[in-house]
Amino acid sequence: MRTPRAAYPVTWRVMDMLERLAAAVWPSSFQRGLPYLMLLPAIVLVGLLVLGLVQIGDTSLRVLDTSTFLMSEDYTLANYQRVLTENFFATVAGRSLMGSLIVTAITLLFAFPYAYLMVRTPSSALRKFLLVALFLPFFIGQVVRAYGWLIILGNQGMVNEALGLVGVPPMRLLYNYPAVLFGLVQYMLPFAVLMLAPALTAIPNELEAAAASLGAGWVRTFRYVVLPLSRPGLVGAGLVVVTLSLTDFAIPAILGGGTQDFIANAIYDQFFRTSDQGLGATLSLMLVAVGSILVGVVFMLFGAGTLAMGETRK
Amino acid sequence: MTGSRSKSVVLWTFVTAALLMLSAPTVVVLGASFTAGNIITFPPDGLSLKWYGAIAQASDLRQAFVRSLIVATICTVVAIPVGTLAGIALAKYRVRFARSIQIYLLLPFTIPLIGSGIGLMLVFGNAGVLGKLWPVGIACCVINLPFMIWAVTASASNLSPDLELAAANCGAPPLQRFLYITLPAVLPGVITGSLLMFILALNEFLVSLLLVDARSVTLPVQIYNSIRSIITPDLAAISVVFIACAAFVIALLDRLVGLDIFLKSK
User: What is the ipTM of this complex?
Assistant: First the structure.
């Protein structure tokens, strides 16, 4: 014989209790506030970053007193003046900016065919292989990848050993500008392909077939159909690659060997080598400003594109 | 595919070069870890597992790895509820200032990593918690949070609101609707997001470097500190741990949600 207790299982009782609790804590008259309550934890977490920016701003307005090694109490703009006038920072900024533009161009050149083949190939095995080859380095982290390049490009590395076999004297392949750029391209490829792929998926295959049936060769189809339609993806990918490579730390540090510092390395040195927090904070804030302006301008010109979250409500 | 022979030649030239570039470091690190010699040479001096034995003995590497695991776990545990709730709220509800909130939540991506890292270092430094592990976990969570929110919104916008209305019609109270309708629908997104958060936090280097002290280094920082002095094969062996973790996460992602979701446009 069934008791009423068995007919009404424990889990239901627990659920009812939780339900009452939820209703007591957040009555249905507060319903309109619910989404804001759900967003609150995320807003608080990201708020840590905003707090960080405020503190950077505060620190950037204080100068280091070299006699006591304390930060000054009163605010001054001296750090900004130093950053803008000293040649060293202009050199580093120029090197980073130039580097990030070159890296972006090369990365997009390789990422586009990769993404195109991955999206268009009829073979699902090939698609999976390309995806895995993309995600593996993406998930391994910069340090391990840079370590791999050290083994390959080092003075006694694989490339030099192989060159030695055919009688070419060892070359210095590491700790120079091209090595850093090469490492950055490899680091950026997965980001670029992953930003491009959705944009290419959105281009119907029929469009290309139509262009071909009207007599366009693949180069013309590519030039006048695929490339213009993939512009949002290209902009998004280019933007991500420019900002990430402009602000990268690990690759210039490891493959540049301290001679090819980018902005991030200069900031790190200000904090941990010379201990001039004010100057480091000034550099950080200016980098954040440049990055945000870059992103902002592109968003205004081309729209947020792939980066938009929850934009498309169905 | 539509196209001619010359098209596939051009395509494959670029793709092969990209594939070589992408996989060369991984393959080389794998190879170097099995060398029998005391330095890394090419071709290797013979095969052995002795460097794996060496890292099993090295307590500093092991501790660093455990610290990285703790950091990644904290990051994921925090990110799952925070990102899921925010993602559902953005995708399902009509929120005032939705556009501004989205831009605000994208801040971790628009602020350069070095800026975020320095800022968090100052914040945690003033709070006097620098050198502990949980601030590193929280920091990794903050800087990668948009990944989590993106993954959840992508699957939440596929959920038809009619389903929830139907459940409500059948008498399901709000919490039940959330647990039995909404949550299962966004689960693929939650899985994708949390795997991403875990593996990215496990590998996070720059923010770790800024937030740890000598007693609390994580594995990427430990490797970075070591390769600046001398390159020995034990580092290759410990790097293989990262490769194995990455491969495991990829296999898991593929099994649970399929890697193809990264190709879809929303």
Answer: 0.86
